[in-house]
Amino acid sequence: MTFTGSPGFYHGQQDKIGVLITNLGTPQAPTKQALKPYLKQFLSDPRVVEVPRLLWWFILNGIILNVRPKRSAHAYASVWSEQGSPLLVHTQNQANAIREKLSARYGDNVQVEFAMRYGQPSIESVVDRMLNNGVRKLLVLPLYPQYSASTTGSTFDALAQDFIARRWLPELRFVNQYCDNDDYIQALADKIQAHWESHGRADKLIFSYHGVPKRYLLNGDPYHCQCHKTSRLVAEKLGLSKDEYLTTFQSRFGREEWLKPYTDETLKALPAQGVKSVQVVCPGFSADCLETIEEIGVENRGYFMDAGGQRYEYIEALNADAGHIDALFGLIESNMHGWQVNADAQRAHRAKQMGASR
Ligand SMILES: C=CC1=C(C)c2cc3[nH]c(cc4nc(cc5[nH]c(cc1n2)c(C)c5CCC(=O)O)C(CCC(=O)O)=C4C)c(C)c3C=C
Ligand SMILES: [Fe+2]
Ligand SMILES: [Fe+2]
Fold first, then answer.
1. What's the CA gap between 167 and 280, in Å, rounded?
2. Strand stretches in 60-151, DSSP E
3. CB of 234 closer than 6 A to ligand 1?
């Protein structure tokens, strides 16, 4: 076994800090052909589907990958924009905004990139580029506010898989979760408040999070608890009482029981309980994507209205909003603690050198 070297390294190279933001990933195109490899990579991940491998191999290759790509391609086509998949576009915009803010403060000492857990740009290819460019301290921020083994844990696996073959590892910091980060909570509260100012309030505010199988919670995944914490903290900021909001779980996949209450079933039942208007917000999605635009914006709207609802509004994800970028910037800065000093010191050092050479 030979470990990969550092082909980009040269003596005297400036050490850099790398900030890598990651998200789930998305297909290359809204087509059956592009969906198949994307879903294959995603659903082959043992962190995502915790089922005995051999059994799952037959179900995935024999059934799911013959049926789902066509259906999902259709859904993706309905949200695709001229620039591409919404998830990719928003993540790109987030990286650009964070890069701009960091370079204004720290100059070119900090390199900001984004990568995707599944599909492109892959974590492996981006980490390779960053390390070859002199990054020696790497901060990874998965854009999942609530920790789940199926998302955050899996992102760490991808990094570890890359590192396992490398000779010179960078210093690594990995953000585990930020479900109760005050700036993130504030950004969510501000977004909801701004929505109220232009649309008025509804009978209920629904916090809808992507679900996971209930079994994962029972086996120790903290995701369910962290979702409830985010909802509670945002509700507290907004001064909402317990009967004014609900936390629900969406995007079920497969037959087993997932975290409850289910978003779709809740929305179908609410009108009969006298709840005629709802506003739905998805705090677990840092960027709008298929699961928010189509599933919440279109599909669930239909369930609620068909059941007798009168008003349904989806409050968009934080995307590249200024409040979100400020929150992520704060999170990055606090996780760079100790590293910043070096960056500041290097800048001060360079400024001094330039002064001396005049
Ligand atoms: C935000 C957190 C997410 C968790 C937790 C999560 C768990 C999870 N997801 C699946 C299966 C699918 N998810 C799909 C799309 C999708 N999932 C997330 C986020 C979380 N998933 C996002 C942001 C997206 C959208 C990606 C995009 O391109 O817009 C899909 C693919 C879409 C489809 O075919 O319907 C599947 C499949 C499981 C099984 C799971 C936990 C075990
Ligand atoms: Fe998902
Ligand atoms: Fe979905």
1. 47
2. 110-116, 135-142
3. no
Q: What angle do CA 281, 283, 286 make, to 5 degrees?
A: 115
Q: Are 193 and 270 contained in the same domain?
A: yes
Task: Indicate whether 218 belongs to any domain.
Answer: yes
- Classify residue 114 as left (phi > 0), alpha (psi -120 to 50) or beta: beta
β partners of residue 64: none
Q: Is 210 assigned a ligand-binding role in the annotation?
A: yes
Using an 8 Å Cβ cutoff, are 291 and 210 in contact?
A: yes
- Domain assignment of residue 154, given as a range: 16-26+85-177+322-348
Q: Residue 213: inside a domain, yes or no?
A: yes
Over the stretch 40-56, which tens digit does the pLDDT of each residue have? 999 999 999 999 999 99
CB of residue 80 inside a 6 A radius of ligand 1:
no
> Model's pTM, two decimal places?
0.94
Regarding the beta carbon of 253 and ligand 1, being less than 6 Å apart is answered yes
**Is 88 touching ligand 1 by the criterion CB < 6 Å?**
no
Q: Is 291 annotated as a binding residue?
A: yes
Q: What are the tens digits of pLDDT across the range 123-181?
A: 999 999 999 999 999 999 999 999 999 999 999 999 999 999 999 999 999 999 999 99
Domain containing residue 202: CATH number: 3.40.50.1400
| Residues 329 and 309 reside in one and the same domain | no
Question: How many separate domains does the chain show?
Answer: 2
Q: Rounded to the nearest whole angstrom, what is the distance from the C-alpha of residue 38 to the centroid of ligand 1?
A: 11
**Dist. CA 251 → ligand 2 center (Å):** 7
By DSSP bridging, strand 135-142 and strand 171-174 are parallel
Cα distance between residue 38 and residue 34, in whole Å: 7
Count Cβ atoms below 10 Å from residue 357 Cβ, excluding itself: 6
**Does the predicted interface ipTM exceed a cut of 0.90?**
yes
Nearest CA to 85 out of 30, 142, 21, 143 is that of 30
